[in-house]
Amino acid sequence: MAATIKDVAQLAGVSPSTVSRVLNQKGVISEETKQRITRAMEELKYVPNDIARSFASGSSHAISLVIDISNGTAYSNNFFNNTVFGIETIAHKNGYNLIITNGAAEFGGVSSVERLMVSKKVDGVVLPISIVTDELLSKVEELNLPCVILGHSEEIGAETNWVDINNTQAGRRAVKMLLQKGYEKIAFISDGSKDIFNQDRITGYCRELAAHQLTVSDQYILHGSPTLESGMEGTLSLINGENPPDAVICSDDRLALGALRAARRMGLSVPEAFGIVSFDNTPLTEFAETSITSMDVDTFELGVQAAEILINQIENPQASLRQVLLSANVIERDSTARK
């Protein structure tokens, strides 16, 4: 038979109400008493009844990450997995469960998320910028539900909590590093022109070129899809153009692998004749035949920051809103290692 709160109290030599206050982090309890209760729970393998705790504290001790399951490419990659891992790590550390729910329009959209909110099955939500709509934000505000957005836009501004990668800075750093290596004609291949993070990276790319009095050419900016084939096709079209570049920045590691294959097909030596930089820093770039320089985006920390901000907002409703931009670092490898 599973241990009860009374069993824990008896073993720890305290009242059941004292155990309850420790579980719900309420009242002033001495550290020595907390440790006795913790040891008793561990010895008895006691698992708190989350439903009972919810009634007692008014909290479900759960947070939700809302995703659009219809957008498979957005959620089947290391970027997303690492972010979820970061959120789950902090949630678990603070005694919260993480619920991943679907907010796709064809599966109910706002209404499916609203059911979680209204039934108080979650205390707060994490929303990727790709799923955020005015309707969803209005519903979150109406229900007074703590919220953190993964990503940001000018429309959101300072009106809510958000965490994002400083993609504009990352685009500038990629260009600056290539210029320092002696590359002069730098192209950019994105995996989609509509995504905000791609737009920000291209903005940074353009700003850094302009800062060095270099022409920003539309023919050097291509938009493809996140595939090796798209990277090859885009790079081949650039190399075979009237004014071929001597380096390319790719917004996705698969694009970068395609760029590497295209350069070899055209007989261009990497990195001497052609430089390649990627984003995301997955094992694909590290273990490629010619390892690829990458902008390292700490997506685990993105999840950590989002969860910490959300839980702080849940437990301290008067806490100020926070907006966090995380930097991306250059991981230099063979694809830009000019001698």
Sheet of most strands: 6 strands, parallel
Spatial sequence of strands, sheet with the most strands: 2-1-3-4-5-11
| Mean pLDDT over the full residue set | 86
Q: Proportion of β residues?
A: 15-25%
- Radius of gyration from CA coordinates: 25 Å
Order of helices and strands: HHHHEHHEHEHEEHEHEHEHEHEHEE
Helix content: 40-55%
Q: Which structural class is indicated by helix and strand composition? A: alpha/beta
Report the end-to-end length measured between terminal Cα atoms: 70 Å
Shape: elongated
Number of helices: 14
Walkthrough of the structure:
With about 350 residues, the protein is of the alpha/beta class. About 45% of the residues lie in helices and about 15% in strands. Strands 2-1-3-4-5-11 form a six-stranded parallel sheet, with helices on both faces. Strands 7-6-8-9-10-12 form a six-stranded mixed sheet, with helices on both faces. Helix 6 (about 80-95) runs parallel beside helix 14, helix 9 (about 165-180) packs across helix 10 (about 195-210) and helix 11 (about 230-240) packs across helix 12. The longest helix is centred in the C-terminal third of the chain and has 17 residues, at about 300-315.
